[in-house]
UniProtKB/TrEMBL annotation:
Signal peptide start-end: none
Keywords: ATP-binding, Kinase, Membrane, Nucleotide-binding, Transferase, Transmembrane, Transmembrane helix, Two-component regulatory system
Membrane topology classification: Multi-pass membrane protein
The organism's taxonomic lineage, starting at the top: Bacteria, Pseudomonadati, Myxococcota, Myxococcia, Myxococcales
Subcellular location, record wording: Membrane
Catalytic activity, EC: 2.7.13.3
InterPro entries in alphabetical order: BphY/WalK/GraS-like, HATPase_C_sf, HATPase_dom, His_kinase_dom, HisK_dim/P_sf, PAS, PAS-like_dom_sf, PAS_4
Keyword Nucleotide-binding annotated: yes
Domain of life: Bacteria
Protein name per the record: histidine kinase
Organism of provenance: Corallococcus caeni
Main localization, broad class: membrane
Record field: catalytic activity: ATP + protein L-histidine = ADP + protein N-phospho-L-histidine
Domain Histidine kinase: start-end pairs: 273-486
Amino acid sequence: MPQPVFQRLPGALPSPGIPEETLPFLGALLNAPGWGVALVDGDSRLVWMNDLLAQLCGRPSALCVGRFLSEAWPGLAPPLSPLLARAQSGERVAEELVSGRFGEVGTLRHLTVSAMPAGPAGVMLLLRDTSARLREEAALRASEEHMRSIVEISCDGYFFHDRGQFLEISPGLGRLLGYYETAELIGRSILDCVAPEFRAPARDVMERGVEAPYELAVLHRDGRRIPVEVMGRHATFQGRAVRMGAVWDVSIRKAAEERLMRMEHFRDQFLDAAGDGFKAPLQMLHCDVLALQHAPSLPEGLTEQVGRVGQGVRRVERLIRQLLDFTRARLSNGLPVHPAPVHLGQLAERVVADRRTAHPGRDLRLVTGGDLKGTWDGERLFQLMDALVGNALHHGPVSSSVVLQLQGRWDGVTVQVHDPDCRVPPEYQGTLFEPFKHRAVCAADDGLGLSLFIVRQIALAHGGRISVESGAADGTRFIVWLPREDAPSTSGP
């Protein structure tokens, strides 16, 4: 049966003049809002309590009504007493937070309490249990602090903003900007801390809600520009949707990039100057040798000597070129190439003609087939084929035949140099294309052990690959694969 609104107690004041038939409806009304309701007389004795309050304290109302608060709720009476005193004096107490042990098991609860005078009946108490909400808020605050700590560790600083106005700034970002009291920046525009040349793109990024990382320069308090990387995300700050930005100081990286650019510029200048400086005198020597060789009055005893001088000039020219290529490949992680339409068959004919002139009497053959046209760096591929042929001629017996074979297919061209009488030991094949390796066994007539390294770099620069096959039955075969311009780029040894 519904509990009466005011339960009569022996010796207590009669209930206010409310018709008896309305009491069940009033009890239901007082239970509905989710508040625990109690009537306390002037002696701090419980006169009445509703069902929700009985459930909250974990005791039937019959065990509480008629008792003093100190008896019914011993753990909650001390903090409630001052509020009751204020209400008994005529003050309306609205939603005060009270904490205490409540119920049979003495659970610590956090209650929102309102108290109001109830005339001769005493004081009306309204109690709502806010323990769960406070625990959730505490957990949320702890989680936010935890996330802030993680963000603070993972970046140099972070900030929250709403339409470009600072809402919160981490201490790390404050120090980066030269502000040790971050409150100085709260409410100010973000753009005030951005270098003028970056303000327009920064405003555009914020308006569009870009989440990809972007770079700009911020202004330190002393006017210095600091390059940073920023990444924004949607976030919630104090219950509203805002934006969060994480900031990384990239000054060290930018300085390293600038030093690297200066080093690369200096390297390119040095290599170009060295190449031009060696090229001019060598060309003069080469022209002088040709002039002497074609001179009609050259004594017969000097003809052989002039020929040796010409060979020496060409060898020095190859040595210098290989050293420059080696330096460029090591410093730039590869050789530069300048592709243009090329016919590999015509380049191969030049290679064979030059080598026949330098090695008269040697059996050097050229075999071609298929489409040999493509887009490559002709000068580099001439260097590649000349080095492979020179390597075979240098290491093979004088009586052996060297074959340069080119075979074109729809997706690329295969270049092979075959020497049936040359053998490469198996233990050397894995490191054959490394610089300065096995000079006595694998080096060509440059004597440095760089030619095969440079050949591999040329193949890789064209998206191709090079391999070697060597055995007792078929001699040694170097195989280079060169894709055409529209073929997928591949690389590898």
